[in-house]
Amino acid sequence: MKSYRFAYFLKEALKGLWRNKNYGIPTIIVFILCLLLVGSSYLIYENVDYNMNSLGLAKEITIFIDSATTDEQVEAIGERIAALDNVDAEHIVYISKEEALAEEADKYAQYGDLLQVLDGDNPLRDSFVIPYESNEGVSTLVYQLNQIEDVAKINNRLDLAGNIESIKSGILFVILGFIIMLVAICVFFIVNTIGLAVMARADEILIMRYIGATGWFVALPFIFEGVIIGLVSSILAYFAQIFVYNHIAVAIVGNFSIINICPFELVGNTILLGFVVSGVLCGAIGSFISMKKYLKA
Amino acid sequence: MIEFKNVTKRYPNGTVALNGIDLKIEDGEFVFIVGGNGSGKTTLTRLLIKEEDITDGEIEVNGEKLSKMRPWRVPYYRRTLGMIFQDFKLLEQKTVSENVTFAMDVVGKSKKAKELNAKTALELVKLLEKAHCKTHEISGGERQKLAIARAIVNEPKLIIADEPTGNIDPAMTRSIMELLIKINKQFDRTVIVITHEEQLVKYYKKRVICIEDGKVKSDEGGRASVSCDGGANE
After folding, report:
1. Given an 8 Å threshold on Cβ–Cβ distance, is B106 in contact with A296?
2. Is the ipTM reported for this complex over the cut 0.85?
3. What is the pLDDT averaged over residues B41-57?
4. Is CB count within 10 Å lower at the N or C end of chain A?
């Protein structure tokens, strides 16, 4: 598309939006509400995931090594673990007993005198945090880890982790449902909004057809109009989502100290991208449906 | 050249608007098409601009068969026509100049070409000094002149004027007709004027095709008298 034509379509779309603001604004509000619904569900999902990780309920197993094991033996154990199936070898983390003690000291800094009781002894053990790839076959992995010499203890919370994974799947299912609803509602609103805009400009369209405008020439300003509605809605919905999350959700959940709130910055980009893509697509699809008959002729 | 070969148009409700019409209009001709209400002249125009499809027969415009024309080709065909309507069909919210450049936006002319062509067209219809006026600020006759400027700005080969003087006073009628004749003579464009105004047809002594009951009743070149009972002489 030549640049001046793009500018023409954009200008016409903006003029159209201004002319039809009485229909456009309610559509933008509906778009924002739908996107907020999906965004909030996604944030719940991310928070469950975040809390699982915080509580060590992620897909990982921690093994503790016998205290008498030498550094060479620990290294050999690390290599054996990395070679096992279903292990995400790149992300295995080794925590020495000194690091573990320092971490505990940090965690309970207000009770500093407690560590003095140890009198220089370190009762903790070296450990490996082993992420695994699939829940299926994790029992085999636990068995294989048990077979490694000098492994003193294996920590895993497979039942709880499994339950929380089910909850996550449920939330994911709800999100998918919301997305389908969002698409249907938004497309319906766009079809009607653009349909009304077309009716308001029926005379102009008729003149355009008489003087040789192609179907695309007639339709593109309206399709741009739908895309702009989707884009503006998604950006506004993003800021509304930040407000809702940081002020409302945090205030409510803040009363439950057991729950950790996932910082918005961690998921902000994904939400913005998701909002923009779904907003623009719904706008384009809806306006395309409205203009289909003009594109055929 | 425009050629109607045994053209019949039957609407889905069974009405036969045109019934085996044969006629030929050469390039550069000026033709009046006359006829009473329901005679079929509007259907003839709609077929010519490919707004309706013919039921039987064939219409050829500059070698192109309209019955074989694909839908995507229709806009490009219409760019070779200049349409003038009784109700002007102008864009009320736009200025005089914008109404003319709008026709060039449709065909994708450059900004420079748009400015130049708009100036030339508005100069021809003597509306250049009102280029920045809104359409509703000019008189009925001027509105029709503006419609003519829009019709010619893309340099079409054929101008079709459907009752161009129907909504304007007699003095302006003459001015509009002089303009159409000038376009025909000076720019060698084929001009078809559909009208029911007997005095107008008599005055200009051009070819007159009279349509009645969907058939060509008479086709008289350059004669003042028009024998079209129930049509132009009504």
Report:
1. no
2. no
3. 92
4. N
Chain B contact residues (CB < 8 Å to A): 49, 71-72, 74-79, 81, 83, 89-91, 103, 105-108, 110-111, 150, 154
Q: Is A8 on the interface with B (CB under 8 A)?
A: yes
% of chain B exceeding 70 in pLDDT? 94
Q: Give the mean pLDDT of A24-45.
A: 90
pLDDT of residue A257: 65
Residue A223 C-alpha, separation from nearest chain B C-alpha, in angstroms: 17
Considering chain A, what percentage of its residues have pLDDT values greater than 70?
91
Judged by CB atoms closer than 8 Å, whether chains meet at A8 and B78 is answered as no
Phi, psi of B78 (to 5 degrees): -65, -25
Parallel, antiparallel, or unpaired for β A127-131 and A93-95?
antiparallel
Closest CA to B104 of A96, A32, A211, A195: A211
Mean pLDDT of chain A: 85
> A172-185: b or e for each residue (b if 16 or more CB lie within 10 Å)?
eeebeebbeebbeb
Q: What is the DSSP letter of B97?
A: H
Give strand ranges (E) for chain A: 60-65, 93-95, 127-131, 151-155
d(CA B23, CA B9): 15
The 10s digit of each residue's pLDDT in A88-109 is 888 899 999 888 888 888 877 7
Question: Rounded to an integer, what distance in angstroms lies between the CA atom of residue A221 and that of residue B75?
Answer: 18
Of the listed ranges A242-251, B132-141, B150-159, the least confidently predicted one is: A242-251
> Are the Cβ atoms of A210 and B110 closer than 8 angstroms?
no
Query: How many CB atoms sit inside 10 A of residue A223's CB?
Result: 22
Domain with CATH 3.30.70.3040 in chain A: 60-156
Residue A124 structure tokens: 């903790």
Question: Are the CB atoms for A240 and A32 separated by under 8 Å?
Answer: yes
Rounded CA separation A289/A222 (Å): 11
Chain A residues near residue B71 by CB distance under 8 angstroms: 296-297
pLDDT digits (tens, 9 = 90+) for A231-256: 999 999 999 999 998 887 777 776 77
Count CA atoms within 13 Å of residue B50 on its CB side.
26
Residue of A nearest to B102 (CA): A208
**Residues in chain A, total:** 297
> At B180, which helix (H) or strand (E)?
helix B170-186
Contacts across the A-B interface (CB distance below 8 Å): 47
Q: Which of A207, A212, A215 sits opposite B91 (nearest CB)?
A: A207
Extended strands (E) in chain B:
2-10, 16-25, 30-34, 56-61, 64-65, 81-85, 158-162, 190-195, 207-212, 215-220
Confidence (pLDDT) at A55: 67
Q: Which residues of B touch A4 (CB under 8 A)?
A: 110-111
- The dotted CATH code for A60-156 is 3.30.70.3040
pLDDT grade for B231, boundaries at 50, 70 and 90: very low
